Amino acid sequence: MISSLTWIRKGIALENPIQNVVDLYESGEYNPLAAPEDSEEQNKENQGLDSTARINADNGEIDEFDMENYDNEPDYPTIFTNSQEDLDMDHVENNLDNDNDEDDLEDELEEIEQLKILPTDNLLVVAKADAEEVSTIEVCVYESSEQNLYVHHDFFVDAYPLCLEWLTNSQLGNLLAVGTFGSPLLDPNSADATNKYSMTHHEQPYTQPYDVNIWDLNVIDSYNYAPVLSLIDPNYKVGSTTADTMSLSWNTNVMNLLASGSSDALVRIWDLHSSSSASGNLVSRLTHHKDKVQCVKWHPVESSILLTASYDKTIAICDSRASMSSAVIKFAKNLGDVETLLWDIHNPSSFYASFESGVVHCYDIRTLSSSSTSAATSPKFTIDAHKSGCTALDVHPTIPNCLLTASVDKSLKIWNTSTHTLVAKSDSDHFSSTVGAIFSAKFCPDSPYFEIAVGGDQNSLLVLDLSSNASIQSAFNYSPPIESSEDNTQQTIRDPFVYVNSGGYGSD
């Protein structure tokens, strides 16, 4: 099944991915975790965090989470290299075995050419697990102009992957955060640890589980592949089990911050740029929920505002500078649990919440206050979207009022939120049988076409192209790019379904 997926924008991935990462590490040409040369005090200043914002190493409690200066984000030291100049594949070619004959060299260079990722390519990253409990992350290339979707490379992860979050900027490069089911922490010297391998099919020494692992997507050396950064709460003890990391959200305004929601009812905030203190990369624990935290979402504009939802039947709007919730939304028990949360990037004062019952609520944070905790909070409007749990929400990146919903009832729908009306829905047996119960669906972030990636319990990744849908064109005044055949005699018709079956390549 596909539990989660995420798009990667065009032009971010290295054109020539790194294959012999060990050689580059040893030569010093590539080290995404190189320590900054700044002094300790300069590091604190660069990170935008006062020392009092750290967790007290003695008692594990939060002294203060000071984000007042986060809007004036400094230039961070570069610790994750993403420079094509620094990582040019000439280095790889020059490191080829001099004893290879010309045929071997030609084969190696041909493989490098085949692995190229063009600036016009999107990547689609997919979390998959099969019946044999083998968990992998697949990195697929999507060529929109050709409607071609294929698996570029993949790698194993230790535990069942629950959520993915893409991280990128000039310092971070092209990284992927992965949250998984929790695992027991063993004594590394114990017999159990000796018999446990950290990677499926790789007989490596036992490594402790983590809350979040950060992977470098520019590397495809699968045998030697390992996370570039692993995040773990220092409060865990040997013999305990790490919490399931159920949700991740990257702060696009303060780009070194990552939030995670877990099954232990905690929201954790991590600083990717620092691990110098006793608390490691953990900046803050938010304790306002009383049950599993299913969703976390940073605000798209306000750097300190974090939206969270829990099985305790509440949604909280938190100011992370205060380490507490500033407003709490209660909802009726018959709605079930919150499945997912989504800020409206075209109207940042509003957000959507989807529920286990299939209903979607829209809330306006300007109408909420800290006193709204005694009764169910009235939403701005409600959409009866699905008959079963609405597991996916997304807003179109360039078209306002265009909302995508998808469900375990095997359907995907497009809504006009200005009129609260249904515009289009998947009604194809081919679609439902290919994808199954849907767990994740997202618009392509930078395509001129109306393209949506969809994944579910049938283990098949599908890109749905609704560009030619007349109802969508009419409702949103949308006009897809006009493509003509080679002789310019007729307009090219795009395939509405482009997919990769498990272990397959190409389009259909």
Q: In one word, what is the shape?
A: globular
* SS content category: mainly beta
Sketch the major β-sheet: 4 strands, antiparallel
Number of strands: 28
Oligomer: single chain
The percent of residues in helical segments reads: 10-25%
What amount of the residues lies in strands?
25-35%
Number of helices: 7
Distance between the termini: 20 Å
On the 0 to 100 scale, the average pLDDT is 79
**Strand order in space, largest sheet:** 1-2-3-4
Write up this protein.
It is a single chain. This protein is mostly beta strands and 508 residues long. The protein has seven helices and 28 strands. The protein has helices spanning 21-27, 40-47, 90-94, 102-114, 191-194, 429-435, 470-476, and strands at residues 2-8, 122-129, 135-143, 148-156, 161-167, 175-180, 212-216, 229-231, 245-250, 257-262, 267-271, 282-286, 293-298, 305-310, 314-319, 324-330, 338-343, 350-355, 359-364, 381-384, 390-395, 402-407, 412-416, 421-425, 438-443, 451-456, 461-465, 497-500. A hairpin with a 5-residue loop joins strand 2 and strand 3. The longest helix is centred in the first third of the chain and has 13 residues, at 102-114. It is globular. WD repeats lie at residues 238-280, 383-425. One of its GO terms (biological process) is rRNA processing. Residues 31-53 are annotated as: Disordered.
